[in-house]
Amino acid sequence: MSYNVAYPELGLDNKVATTHWGYASKFKADFPLVDLQENQFVTQSKGQSADQSGNIFCAAGGSAFYDLALLLIERYCGREVSTQVAKTQIIDSKRGNQNSYTNVTLHKPHSDQLVKQVQEFIEQNFQQPLQISSLAAMANITPRTLNRRFQSAVTMRPIEYIQAVRIEQAKRLLELGDVTIKSLADQVGYDDISSFTRLFKRATELTPKEYQEKFSRLAI
């Protein structure tokens, strides 16, 4: 990505943008001055030059260009026309954001071997009670150091990674078929169903039931 070199007038420094969730970490590293809204399907930001039509638009990836098209149609033709286009083209115009599509396994491409070992332990034991102090002792470092190294390597704390792994497994179980919320919570390491449901919705912006209805193989 070299937009600042090729098109300096379209530079995104200090502006809102989005990209595919799988490239968000690299984008942040390469372009730290961009206000990356990685959970959004589309974004719009004011252009710098007077001859621009007012905005720079970004789409997160493949099907997100449908969202971008609907946004532009609504902007220039009105909401009614945009709604009709969505209906005639069978486009889901209320998809929320990218959170329900993310995959925690893509947080592994880094060079910190100690963090990778802890990640693998978490992924193999996510159903068990996991304490940060125990994980740090296993790695022979302090909890503070473990937190710092996790933040540096995968841009999240160990507790957040544990939650992400559990939510990812819950998503897979929901995709496979019929499962009760209590059974689901038990299988991914949560005793408190309400806490699990709250964390799941915060991570995906969908309740477990809504996620199952949207992605389950049985719903196809």
Task: List its salient traits.
mainly alpha, 11 helices, 4 strands
Order of helices and strands: HEHEEEHHHHHHHHH
**Basic shape:** flat
Calculate the mean pLDDT score and round it. Answer: 79
Give the biggest sheet: 2 strands, parallel
* N→C terminal distance: 37 Å
Radius of gyration: 20 Å
Helix/strand/pairing category = mainly alpha
Which strand order does the major sheet show? 1-2
Which percent range fits the helix content? Answer: 40-55%
Q: Roughly what fraction of the amino acids lie in strands?
A: 5-15%
Count of helical segments? 11
SS elements, strand count: 4
Regions with pLDDT < 50 over 5+ consecutive residues? 1-9
Question: Overview of this structure, please?
Answer:
- There is one protein chain.
- By secondary structure, the chain is mostly helical.
- The chain contains 11 helices and 4 strands, in the order αβαβββααααααααα.
- It has helices spanning 3-6, 24-30, 64-77, 79-88, 113-125, 132-138, 143-154, 158-176, 181-187, 193-204, 208-215, and strands at residues 16-17, 35-36, 42-45, 56-59.
Provide a brief overview of the structure.
51% of the residues lie in helices and 5% in strands. With 220 residues, it is mainly alpha-helical. Residues 1-9 have low confidence and may be disordered.
